[in-house]
Design goal:
Layout: E1 6-8, H1 10-18, H2 20-31, E2 36-39, H3 40-64, H4 67-73, H5 82-97, H6 103-120, E3 127-129, E4 142-143, E5 149-150, H7 165-170, H8 173-180, H9 191-201, H10 209-214, H11 216-223, E6 229-232, H12 235-245, E7 251-254
Length: 261
């Protein structure tokens, strides 16, 4: 293997499976013959977002029996949050493009994704950094007696998991301070991230949504090994983050155009 390590963001794992043939080929070409690393935090983020969306999609398809109805319901807040709905629609469209022809075929394909393909990607990493000891979703999806998957995202401020996110940011206080002091008007797309950094500096715990939503990209940016290249399709957020947080931040590479989340 040649070159500096490539540190994969959550978007790359999603695009490998749900980005379409051209995107998947672009990723394979980009990663060929390079040491590839990621982190347990990225893994848990992927479980809490795309794996969770696949579980919700499977359960709703099992209940409704009509893939087109499930696609329509991805915009319905009674069934999906906005983020879950976007991911569920992407998953179903991918299954349609891959030739799953009816509800039974799609359920079988979703089952394989949930139980094997989605998380098996992380087994191929040369290194899985674990600086946060994140455990948002400690248990795998399991079936109940009616065939529905049960899968809980357990981390919250009210019920925090036994991770070390406070220690993580204490050791990276300069980077967190740089982010907290950034200009919200100049970086409007990062306003929630900047606010969450400021709240953490002020003593509020970086847990719950503050951790796995508002500061998630900052965690990934800080985790990436010095000398590695952070690979993401979310350039809109990561390019300014690498500049704001300072230090020897990794370069950001165009994996693909567009976003996956």
């Amino acid at each position: 293997m040649e070159g500096s390590p490539l540190f994969l963001d959550t978007t790359v794992f999603a695009d490998r499976l749900f980005g379409g043939g051209e995107r998947a080929r672009s990723i394979r070409a980009l990663l060929a013959n390079r040491p590839v690393v990621s982190s347990n935090y990225v893994r848990e983020q992927f479980r809490a977002t795309f794996l969770r969306a696949a579980v919700l999609t499977y359960n709703l398809l099992l209940e409704k029996g009509d893939p087109l109805e499930v696609i329509r319901l991805t915009d319905n807040y009674s069934f999906f949050t906005t983020g879950d709905g976007v991911k569920a629609r992407k998953i179903l469209v991918t299954l349609l493009q891959n030739g799953a022809t009816d509800a039974t075929d799609k359920l079988a394909s979703l089952e394989r994704l949930i139980e094997f393909d989605m998380m098996r990607q992380f087994d191929t990493m040369a290194l899985l950094i674990d600086a946060t000891q994140c455990c948002q979703c400690p248990d795998d999806p399991v079936r109940d007696e009616n065939g529905f998957y049960r899968f809980k995202k357990l981390c919250s401020i009210a019920d925090p998991r036994p991770c070390v996110i406070e220690k993580f940011w204490t050791e990276r206080l300069n980077e967190l301070s740089n982010l907290a002091e950034a200009d919200r008007q100049e970086h409007k797309q990062l306003a929630n991230t900047i606010s969450a950094a400021a709240e953490t500096i002020q003593g509020n715990p970086p847990r719950g949504r503050r951790c796995f939503v508002h500061l998630s990209d900052a965690v990934i940016c800080a985790e990436a090994e010095q000398g590695s290249t952070l690979v993401t399709s979310n350039l809109r957020d990561f390019v300014p983050l690498t500049r704001i947080m300072g230090g020897k931040r990794p370069a950001v590479s165009y994996a693909l155009e567009g976003r996956s989340r």
